Write the structure tokens for this entry.
Amino acid sequence: MPERRGYAKGIAKREEILARALEVFAEKGYRKASLREIADSVGLSQAGLLHHFSSKEELFAEVLRKRDEVDSAAGDLGADWSGAFDGLVGIVRHNAEVPGLVQLYATISAEAADPDHPGHDYFVNRYALIVGGLEQYIRSEQAAGRVRAGVDPRTLARLAVAVADGMQVQWMLDPSADMADAIEAFWSLIRTE
């Protein structure tokens, strides 16, 4: 039984680290946040912090997974992706409130293009899930006559993700760029109504 308790305590500490790291990155950004600050805030040394993760990069990738949990509360895509449009706009609006996490996401997603990066599989799976869900949503909207027919739904889904990610970069460089408005403009271009 003690082994089980230690395991549960380890999981709880890992979740505490992720929650605090999420807050620190949201407040300070990717470059200004330090592992020492995160470790201190949860009562660990840096070595103790990294005991719960195989590397700093794995910690960052896990923080992004945690961010996805928070984002899903900010914008509901719908279990069957029926709320994809409004959900995506809601998530993007929420992201404008957490610039440090947008910066972390943009930085780590670019680094994770390397197949050896600890976050590589996370991003591959995340994009597959989002593109697949948006494709399903767009296909159903095309069938209902609300989205232009004749354009491949998967291509439109990839374009929607590209607009969202590209607007994040533009917004980091120019905070007056409205990410959510850009997504809404994209949808208005493909809608028939």
